[in-house]
Amino acid sequence: MEISASILSVNEEESVHTFYRLEIAKVDYFHIDVMDGRFVEKDSQENMKKYADNLKNITNIPLDVHLMVEDVKKYVDIFSPNEPRCITFHYEAVKDKEKIMELINYIKQYSKVGISVKPETNIEVVYDFLPFIHNVLIMTVEPGSGGQELIPETIEKIKTLKKYILDNNLDTEIEADGGINLSNINELKNAGIDIAVVGTALIEAKDYKYMVNKLKE
User: Fold this and answer.
1) 36 belongs to the catalytic site
2) Contact present, 42 and 8 (Cβ < 8 Å)
3) Which of 86, 92, 37 is nearest to 64 (CA)?
4) Which CATH class is domain 2-216?
5) Catalytic option among 28, 33, 36, 64
6) 130 and 167 in contact (C-beta within 8 Å)?
């Protein structure tokens, strides 16, 4: 299992030092939470673009861009120059199957592509897209802010998706995001996640390397 470090709550004045500590701790990805103030209430686009630009210049750790936005293509154009490993957009921001396929093909010009679903969205809505995408990001909290507690029901969603992927011989990865910490990471691993997005529990830890190692055990 891999760790994608959410940097949404990183203090700007300490950001370069924090990024360095996360790199030394051997996180696998930097998770860039892009919010437009419309799809979710919070607006993080300016800060996340600044962080993405900085990271591109100081580290080789891949960026994992999560677009919580209404105008997906606009933000693909903004963040694709940062050469992210993957750009993930929300099913709920588009819903129309034809438009989703257009976005999938558009993003593939620049990076791997993922689709994210909110906690209340049925996981079955992504099944038709699985052969064409690289990962599914299951939100285990309501998108929009850090520090929330993981919603237990989302673990069943992960199990359902994992079974479908295995039964259909698909290579799609499962990523989980929200409220992930040492008390629930094993349950998520057992449910079938490949990537854990960890924010508050990691950024607020005194020893990043210890925390990353414990999460991966």
Assistant:
1) no
2) no
3) 86
4) alpha beta
5) 33
6) no
Q: Any catalytic annotation for residue 33? A: yes
pTM of the model: 0.96
Taking only the tens place, the pLDDT of each residue in 68-116 is: 999 999 999 999 999 999 999 999 999 899 999 999 999 999 999 999 9
Among candidate residues 78, 70, 84, the one with its CA nearest the CA of residue 30: 84
Spot the catalytic one: 28, 36, 64, 177: 177
* pLDDT tens digits, one per residue of 155-188: 999 999 999 999 999 999 999 999 999 999 999 9
Pairing verdict, β 86-90 and 112-117: parallel
Residue (of 127, 145, 6, 120) closest to 66 by Cα position:
6
Domain regions of the chain by residue span: 2-216
